[in-house]
Amino acid sequence: MLVGIILVFLVTLGLPSVAATCNVNSQSITRVIGYYDSSAVSRPCAAMMPYFFPQGIYSHIYFASGSIHPDTFEVIPSAERDKKLYTYLSALYMRDLGQELWLSIGGWAFSSHGAPTATTFSDLAAADINQQNVFFRSLSRFMHTYHFVGVDIDWQYPVAAGRAEDYVNYPKFLANLKAVLDEYKFGLSITLPTSDHYLQHFDLAAIEPSVDWFNFMTYDLHGTGQIGDEWTGAINAHTNLTEIRNSLNLLWHRNIPPFKVNMGISFHGRSYTLSDPSCTEPGCPFLSGGDAGECSMSAGTLFNSEINRRIHQDNLIPTLDSTAAIKTLTFPTDQWLSYDDEDTFKLKADFAKSQCLGGVFVRSVDEDDRNHTFSKGLMAALGNELNLDLKTGLTKVAFNEKSTTAGSRSQSSQNQYCRFANCGAACPNGFTEVVRADEPEQIMQDSMGGSAASEQTRTLCCPTSGKVPTCQWRGALETGGCTGGCNSDEAEVGTSIAGCTSGYQSACCSITKSTEPWAQCKWSQTCQSDDTCPSGYNHFVVGSRRGSGGRQSCNGEEHYNYCCSGSSVPDIFSKCEWTTRSNGDDCSGSCPADSVRVAGQSVFLSGTESGCSFGSEVYCCSGGKVPNTHTPVSAVHKEQTAEEFRGYLQQFLANPVIPEGWADRVVERL
Ligand SMILES: *[C@@H]1O[C@H](CO)[C@@H](O)[C@H](O)[C@H]1NC(C)=O
Ligand SMILES: *[C@@H]1O[C@H](CO)[C@@H](O)[C@H](O)[C@H]1NC(C)=O
């Protein structure tokens, strides 16, 4: 009734304030994000290793948190051991088909006063594009290496814990970031506070186009310690549907589309030590945060696992407040606690559906008990089924197929063909690694420059929708020299100089539907100064000094030519572009998702800030019928030989290590 009057009042004022309404019974929420907090492994009790993450419930896992080096802006793990956790979590996609692993960067402690990174987000958002590029490049490398497909910027909070200029800088920074992530179809989300005190400092209209969704932190609204509200001295539930409703209106006033909003749910409660144990209502005074839990080890916070145990041990009877959608407990005499369970999840889930919200997120899944009581409770409250066939142990419907909104990766005709993945990347969904026919213990991989580090290795991936070809490396001789090339009934899908003192090896596969176009095309045996193709292969595709990337470099302006036989260039090699990365080694060149790398070479880049630098560029084809509009001759490498060697010399004098791929060219000249 009261709400109705307020709405009418706002409408008559002409504010675009009315929330969309959806039918609770027909609306479903399939974007269910679970944060995993790295502290989960180091707790004295109630620890949750990544492989105990519940199966069949979450469409996304968010790892909390990644960090940023405050001086260089490079993305770094918050702790060395986190690298192991990424690996465990990324392996989970094998059982939860279509589940996505995202990296959440920042968090409360990251920007809190006194932390070495206290001003890092402000600095980064204010930095010029060259400095931001350092962050973007290292982020993209980091994501490829550890198999993240989205990033969450958890800045708590611009302006309030930063500088006034954050208001204008943050949207610009996010737009730059989104442009880079789009190249790989990586996702982007940010966290938002619910209190207008903090939210007013976000230029939401300017930010909205850049993000896939907002994680609206509708928990920890009140409490003691590092909590986002002013000190009131009175107890208050840490989450409260009345307040959530009001805060969501702040978003609707700013025209944020509801499908971009995820409602936050905490798997912890907030507790107080009461001043007067007989006064236990919201508004009553408190002395301090509640006693720390033995597992949470933080005053004022109890994990749901700890709360549940206490309820069962001490036969506690919680009170349900169905207006606020919260349960409260008073125990043994002076501790007062608010928390959520399946009953209050249901009230919130129905409300989220009625507001047409796109998703929910849990912070954090590791605060649950071993039986996943609360993850399962949330799933039931949402009306979702366990996405798991208990007989086979497999996912029933791939998570990314269930969710029709943003974030699901598009299908492309390129997905019919084998290709080497980007350095460090796993084969995408729908693809498999290929066992080496000559070394059945190993899979087909290309160790760039012979380095065994996984981030320097490219894996051959073939679609599982058709017959997987038989593949092997050919050309290594006992002498250490190599003579590349495949048999006539094979397709060459890549080359590598790893393990070769001269020449190169070829990745050769039997001809199947997935390798057919590769069989139709080949690289010229020798370096060419023009577009001359090998005889019988009349259609020129691209020229590259290092062929597919793994050949000894041609001199100066010469290049190997990739050419195709048949009536035209196969579709897979159309819609191609050179992409350049500066300061890179061979592995810094990555192709966007759903595209195929055909050629790669190192380049000399002039005109950068530092005067000169080396980089790499890759030629990526996204396929389809549209003919090439871009010139297949590298845009960067033109008549630069003299300048190139001057650049090389400068670099060598600064750091006497010969850049990979240049050694042979230099030796020839000396
Ligand atoms: C929920 O919020 C409303 C409005 O701020 C407040 O009046 C009420 O006491 C709160 N309920 C609880 C349980 O904290
Ligand atoms: C988990 O479930 C089992 C079997 O239902 C029960 O005996 C056990 O107490 C539960 N453990 C927790 C931590 O809830």
Automatic annotation (TrEMBL):
Q: Which Pfam families has this protein been placed in? A: Glyco_hydro_18
Q: Which PANTHER family match?
A: CHITINASE
Sorted alphabetically, which SMART domains does this protein's record hold?
Glyco_18
Q: Which organism is it from?
A: Aspergillus ibericus CBS 121593
PROSITE patterns (UniProt xref): GH18_2 (PS51910)
InterPro entries attached to this UniProt entry: Chitinase_II/V-like_cat (IPR011583), Chitinase_insertion_sf (IPR029070), GH (IPR017853), Glyco_hydro18_cat (IPR001223), Glycosyl_Hydrlase_18 (IPR050314)
Q: Could you say which residues form the signal peptide?
A: 1-20
EC number(s) per UniProt?
3.2.1.14
The molecular function GO annotations come to: chitin binding; endochitinase activity
Q: Name one GO biological process term.
A: carbohydrate metabolic process
Q: Which family does it belong to?
A: Belongs to the glycosyl hydrolase 18 family. Chitinase class V subfamily.
The domain of life for this entry's organism is: Eukaryota
Ordered alphabetically, the record's keywords are: Hydrolase, Signal
Question: Enzyme class, one word?
Answer: hydrolase
Q: Where is the GH18 domain?
A: 30-385
Taxonomic lineage of this organism?
Answer: Eukaryota, Fungi, Dikarya, Ascomycota, Pezizomycotina
Protein name per Swiss-Prot or TrEMBL? chitinase
Annotated Gene Ontology cellular components are: extracellular region
Q: Hydrolase among the record's keywords?
A: yes
